[in-house]
Amino acid sequence: MAPDANGTALYGSSNNNNHHHHHHHDQKLVQQRPSATMNGSAKAANGGAPQPQQHSKAPSPPADEDRSARQSLIILAAIFFTSLFAMVYVYAMFPQLEESEKQYLKVPFDIEDAKQLGRVLDRYKDLYNLEVMFGIILVYIFLQTFAIPGSLFLSILSGFLYSFPVALTLVCFCSALGATLCYLLSQLVGRRLVKYYFPERAHHWAKQVDRHRDDLLSYMLFLRMTPFLPNWFINLVAPVIGVPLYPFALGTFLGVAPPSFIAIQAGKTLYKMTSSSDAFSWGSIAMLAAFSVVALVPVIFKRYFKAKID
């Protein structure tokens, strides 16, 4: 019976050992489950529902750019309509005109408009000299600031209404101030829009500007004197590609003088003109070409001497 007792005892002890082992294993499982649950909740915190909420709080760069471009357009529209209101105010403050004359008091977009407006302003110029001049200056700057065509006809009109020195100073001042305002406006809103819609082209132009940074004044004079790029395009693109304000403004003031000289001279014979192209003869084109070459002389000399030294 002893073996049985021993066997039973052995069996019982093995059962106790197994029971103790299972109990210990269960305790381990119980201990591991909370940690697994904690790990699962941590994973949920990191990779589950809360994570997209964190991403939704910080918008992606394209969304930022889209919103920035939209804000730029709103700012541009607000400035434009404020300026338009100022134009309407000046029109309202203008001396009382006859009914037949009111239809001609508008921005000239062709030579006939310029002729009719010239007749009206010439009649009131002596009595209301400051009002007429202030009106021309404001309209000129408005057209330049918002890159609206028509400033050429105002240059011709200035030559018709005023003496040559007064007309030339007026046109150069208005061109430089209007172009500078357009530059600043483009810097405020245009840079975002161009980089949003034309990122590769803007980057290419910026690299070109960096290469010729020491000669920007000469290049600005050249571009203002030649018809390769329209003035409104230069005004809008210059701040986007990194052209500094000083060479831009000075280059504009000096660079518009030769073309303005031609337009003002043409204004002396306004009534004989049939189109704006009458202002530019082969002689005047040759004069512009000569001034353009003179503007690039410093760049040519600099490169020549640099090549000699190298």
From TrEMBL:
Q: What is its subcellular localisation?
A: Membrane
Q: How does it sit in the membrane?
A: Multi-pass membrane protein
Looking at the UniProt entry, the stretches that span the membrane are: 73-94, 127-148, 160-185, 279-301
Q: Sorted alphabetically, which Pfam families does this protein's record hold?
A: VTT_dom
Q: Which InterPro entries match?
A: TM41A/B, VTT_dom
Residues covered by the VTT domain? 148-268
The segments labelled Disordered in the record are 1-65
Q: Quote the biased-composition stretches of kind Polar residues, using this chain's numbering.
A: 29-40
Q: GO CC terms on record?
A: endoplasmic reticulum membrane
Q: Which UniProt keywords apply?
A: Membrane, Transmembrane, Transmembrane helix
Q: Name one GO biological process term.
A: autophagosome assembly
Family to which the UniProt record says this protein belongs: Belongs to the TMEM41 family.
Name listed for the protein in its UniProt record: VTT domain-containing protein
- Source organism per entry reads Anopheles quadriannulatus (Mosquito)
Organism lineage reads as:
Eukaryota, Metazoa, Ecdysozoa, Arthropoda, Hexapoda
